[in-house]
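Deliverable D2.4 — example input (structure tokens):
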């Protein structure tokens, strides 16, 4: 496999959407609506709030990594990877490593002091992959509030 990684551009919209749909299916998440997909593409094109790198085998899209810059990271800025997805047929062929390598280059170019990411506790394959890379594991807990819970969460915040 000959993997190339590059930042998302407008010409990658369909390739990204195919991978995004496969990612949702992998995690057993209902497909995004057309409006949701259009919103993601518009934010990626605007380079607003988030960014994405795509991996290709020749011209075939085989993976993506979504990321953004965040602070504080100590006194600096960190690159935070939200998702690393590799299509099932391309797994264990260097695609994930290629995407991570490219994001480290981005972190360096952006002057980041670190590169952060998380994985679901139930994603043993991802944890095995990161352990094989000797990626340091942090002892943190992640919290998540879904859109359906925004109002009740704000009520709890207001009443604490």
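Example output (designed residues):
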């Amino acid at each position: 496999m000959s993997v190339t990684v590059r930042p998302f551009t407008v010409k990658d919209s369909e390739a990204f959407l195919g991978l995004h749909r496969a990612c949702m299916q992998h995690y057993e998440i209902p497909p995004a609506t057309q409006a949701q997909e259009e919103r993601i593409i518009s934010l990626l094109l605007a380079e607003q709030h988030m960014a994405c790198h795509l991996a290709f085998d020749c011209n075939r899209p085989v993976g993506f990594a979504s990321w953004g810059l965040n602070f504080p990271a100590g006194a600096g800025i960190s690159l935070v990877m939200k998702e690393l997805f590799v299509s099932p047929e391309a797994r264990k062929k260097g695609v994930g490593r290629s995407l991570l390598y490219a994001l480290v280059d981005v972190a360096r170019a952006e002057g980041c002091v670190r590169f952060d990411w998380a994985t679901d506790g139930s994603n043993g394959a991802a944890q095995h992959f990161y352990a094989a890379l000797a990626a340091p594991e942090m002892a943190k807990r992640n919290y998540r509030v879904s859109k359906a819970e925004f109002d009740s969460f704000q009520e709890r915040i207001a009443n604490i």
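Residues 1 and 57 are 6 Å apart (CA to CA).
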